[in-house]
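Async update (no meeting this week)

Hi team, since we skipped the sync, here's where things stand on the single-chain job. The sequence we agreed to prioritize is pasted below, unchanged from the tracker. I ran it this morning and attached the output directly underneath so nobody has to dig for it. Comments welcome in thread, and please keep replies under the output.
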Amino acid sequence: MKLQLAMIIGLFAASAFGGNSNLVEQEMLSEVVYVESPTDTDGDGKLDRIYVSIDRPSSDKKLSSIFSISPYALGGNDGPMHNVDMDLLPQDEKLFKGLSANVKNLFSNLRKTLREYQATPMINAFKYAQVRAHSVGTGKSTGCPTVGDMAETLAAKSVIDWLDGRARAFSQDGREVKADWANGSVGMTGTSYDGTLPIMVATTGVEGLKAIIPIAAISNWYDYYRANGLVVNPGGYVGEDADSLGFFIMRKGDCKAELANITKTMGRENGDFTSFWQARDHLAQVKNIKAATFIIHGQSDWNVKQKHAIQLWEALEGVAPRRMFLHRGGHGSTYNHGVPKKIQAWFDHFLEGEENGITSGPQVEVELTDGSLMVQNEWPNESTESQRLFFMPDSSLAILAADEDRLSITDSGQTQELEKLTANPGQRNEGRLVFLTAPLEMSTVLSGTSRVSLNLAVLNRKAANITVAIVEYDKNNRAKIITRGWADPQNHQDFTQGETLIPGQIYQLSFDLEPKQYRLAAGSRLGVLLASTDYDYTLRPKSGTKIEFTLGQKSFIDLRLSK
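Output:
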């Protein structure tokens, strides 16, 4: 065990924890252990071992622990992404080519904000042991990465089992090491993948895990790489999938056979909710969570989309204490509105038993684009109510349906970004349809998960992308996409298994858009855009797919707006 003297600048501590600005000196103890996991992910006949480093203050009393675990600790491997440009969608031509070595290498920028992901939110280092681990098959841990499944979960859980005396750990020279300094109370936190692992571990119901703070975290891996039957990619990472992420995080030179199995079983020939993705749906196990959960997510996060936070929040109702902060930023946390102090207070209350008021009052806070904060008791905002708007032949949105009529589009998404398709809504553009409300008489809050229903036919293909976006048009007709969503009409019955479309046959397709809370300005108009390929998110077949929408009683959008 290495003894070191830590000197923490009090000014930094004051900003984070409300302390004074004096220089503080305190002895800190550091050690490294390898925790024995119950898994053997590389099939070598040996149990995986998880690399763990501990920094803790010298103390006469046993300590609670803040545990973070990351697959990014030692960086990543460069490699190819999947090709997203193609003649036809794979579910149309039933062709699957796997990883394409001809596509531009984007892994160098795959996790360009790696340090942000690894950063643990500021926690008082004088109060807690800081326990940091490398996820199974990554960094200095043994085994192979399995990207979101139970093996990865159990490997991370083993660290808590060790802290609670239920698992073994060893020093580098093979000596067994016990966590005799730990009191058994553990909190977990992290951002992105590092924030997903706390959710995964919490779904086991492991004893000792008292609180988690998942930041920009995945709650269902299907919703990260798929959407309503379609293959989609995280925002900014075109062509990424579970296997390419696994390749990026794996220990160098190892686990190629295991990753080949991920490629084979995840499937890019369609976006069905297969057994591979069902095994990575953490929402299915939320009922087991005992840890108090404080969800932090960015409303402008299109990498790990806000859906992950909202569906976790909803699933936790009646299961465990919960709190949620939705900030206006993108992928990561925020320092606005006292969030670091709230993080500290969450752990202080649930790990140390401090009565600090963190569980009192409204437990949902939403930061809007102007920086203002909406404090509310629930999600969606209780001041909103459901509203159904029908798509009209004159390109308006109305509360009463029109007589049946038909409008069509021709896909141009391989060459046009969705933002370009929003321009000039009053002009004809074969690549999209835009439906608009009248100018809003007052500012209006949109809150919750909007759901669209479309009566449609694909005229000249057996498969198609469907993209829908909600757009704000200001007084000068400048467009801003508020939210969007995607679906495969082959999955019009369910998202577990699609069926080949019959060209020209009409199908009813209903699906959710990504959740959002947003205040539209007075005088602006709310628009709904219907398109096919979304250049930044979906696969990109060559232009030319023709889609016909039947307007009337069966084509509408349900959303929640201010009463």
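Quick observations from my side:
The longest helix spans residues 150-163.
The radius of gyration is 25 Å.
Reply here if anything looks off.
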